[in-house]
Design brief:
111 residues; mainly alpha; two-stranded parallel ribbon
Length: 111
């Protein structure tokens, strides 16, 4: 069974939401098979984190637990991810060491 155009649209929207809209053309299309090693060589650590965040926007869970989920991406990308989570009403709990996470949370526990 093929992937529906609605699914393709959701994938493109999610990639756009995290700032990876150009990735589709760069890798030869949405459904071009890639090995984990190819993804590792193609994407920077921050881009891999953005791609993982795109999965959140495709699946739309009510709650996400983020453990160092933005540690390798620039602060601007991090801010965009958290703004979109908040705008979509997704609850989140983050674990991280970056001070840039603080403005995106209502409560902070420093352990």
């Amino acid at each position: 069974a093929g992937v529906s155009s609605a699914s393709n649209e959701a994938l493109r929207d999610a990639l756009d939401a995290v700032g990876l809209s150009g990735l589709v053309a760069r890798v030869g299309g949405l459904h071009t098979p890639r090995s984990p090693q190819e993804w590792h060589a193609t994407l920077s650590p921050g881009q891999r984190q953005l791609l993982i965040c795109a999965r959140i926007f495709v699946h739309r869970p009510a709650l996400v637990l983020l453990d160092e989920a933005t540690s390798a991406m620039p602060a601007a990308d991090e801010a965009r991810i958290y703004a979109k989570l908040k705008a979509r009403g997704t609850a989140y709990v983050s674990i991280g060491h970056r001070a840039s996470l603080e403005p995106h949370h209502d409560e902070i526990i420093d352990l």
